[in-house]
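Input structure tokens:
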């Protein structure tokens, strides 16, 4: 089965890869001057675009991993995430990990989603 790669802005990385009915995608906020809630909203908007470009949407997310630089502020990210993800029918498996990120990036999110049948 073919692998489709959607080019990203960073050298050596794709913003999404499509293979065997699944989409693997990642995003960060383009404007890192905002706080965690603002960066989370930007990141989710970028993921919406990545999923659409790959042929799916957030209702088909299977798994998400959220990386934050300050776990004490996780509630700020969660508030934006919960508004974005919608009703319980859309809730994927999700983990949140505290880690260092490059520059002023406060959040990075990776997602695995299913393509429509």
């Amino acid at each position: 089965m073919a692998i489709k790669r959607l080019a990203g802005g960073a050298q050596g990385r794709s913003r999404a890869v499509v293979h065997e009915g699944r989409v693997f995608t990642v995003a960060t906020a383009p404007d890192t001057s905002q706080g965690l809630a603002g960066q989370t909203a930007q990141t989710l908007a970028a993921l919406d675009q990545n999923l659409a470009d790959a042929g799916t949407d957030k209702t088909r997310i299977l798994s998400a991993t959220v990386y934050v630089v300050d776990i004490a502020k996780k509630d700020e990210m969660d508030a934006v995430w919960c508004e974005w993800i919608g009703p319980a029918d859309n809730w994927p498996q999700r983990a949140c990990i505290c880690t260092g990120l490059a520059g002023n990036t406060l959040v990075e999110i990776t997602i695995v989603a299913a393509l429509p049948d």
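The radius of gyration is 14 Å. The mean pLDDT is 96.
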